[in-house]
Amino acid sequence: GIGALFLITPWHTFARVPTTVLTIPVSFTELTSDRLGVFVQGEIHVRLDVEAMLTQHDFSVDPWIDTWLKDDPTRVNEDAGKALQGYMRALIKDRTLEDVIVSASDLETQVLAAIEADSSRLTKLGMHLEGLFITSVKPENRQLSAAIEATKREEMLAIADKAISTRRMAAAQSDRELKEYEAGTAQTMEEKRSALIEVRNRNVIAEAGADAEAASKKLEPYRDVDPGVLLALAIRQMAETGVGEFNLTPDLLTALRRAGPKE
C-alpha cells in the first residue's frame, strides 16, 4: 500500500500487466474470393487477463528504471491484430471485392457477431473484447479504389436523377388527377344544375296545370248562366271589392247580347 517499504534484491522479479482497457489500432490486407486485396483499418478494445498474460508472456520490469525488460508487451498488440484478422478473413474470403465494399458498413456488426459466437481466438490469448470499430474498408489497389468510387458516384447520380424524375412524374400525375377531379366536379355540378332546372320546370308546369284545373272547376257552375247575369254578378263583385269606376260601352252591351242564349 501507500508508504510500504520493499526490500529489492537481485533475485526478485517484478512484472507489470495493464489492467485498464487497451485501445489497439489494427490494419491489414485480406484477399477476396476474386483474389483482390482489400485494406482494412480500425481499432479493437480489449481487457487483459492478468494470469493468462503472465503465463504466456514475460511482463517483467526493471524496478529501477520502470521499463519492461522484453518486448512481450508490444506483442500483445500484434496478437490482437492477428486475432481480429482471423475473424475478418472468415468473412471476406468468400466474398467478391465489390460485395465487401458495398457491405462495408455492416462488416463491423458481422465481426462482432462472429466474436460473440466464438471468442476462442481472443480467450486463448488472454484477452476479453470490450469494443470494436472498423474505420476503413477499401481496395488495396488505388486505381481500382478510384474506379469503384467513380462507379459509386455515377450510381448515386443515377439514383438522384431517378428520384427527380419520379418526383416530376408524381407531380404531373397529381396535376392530371387534380384537373380530372375539377372537370368531374364541374360536370357533376352542371348535371345537378340541369336536374334542378328540370325539376323546377316540372313543378311550374304542374302548378300551372293545377291552377288551370282549379279555375276551371271554380267557373264550372257559371257555364250555362246568361252573360247578362254574369255581367251583373261581376258588377256587384267589383262594387263589393271597391272598384271606383266602371264604364258600360255600347260595344260591351252588343257583345253580351250576341253571347246570350240562342232562340
Automatic annotation (TrEMBL):
It comes from the Bacteria. Residues 6-166 form the Band domain. Pfam families: Band_7. InterPro entries: Band_7, Band_7/SPFH_dom_sf. This is Band 7 domain-containing protein. It comes from Candidatus Uhrbacteria bacterium GW2011_GWA2_52_8d.
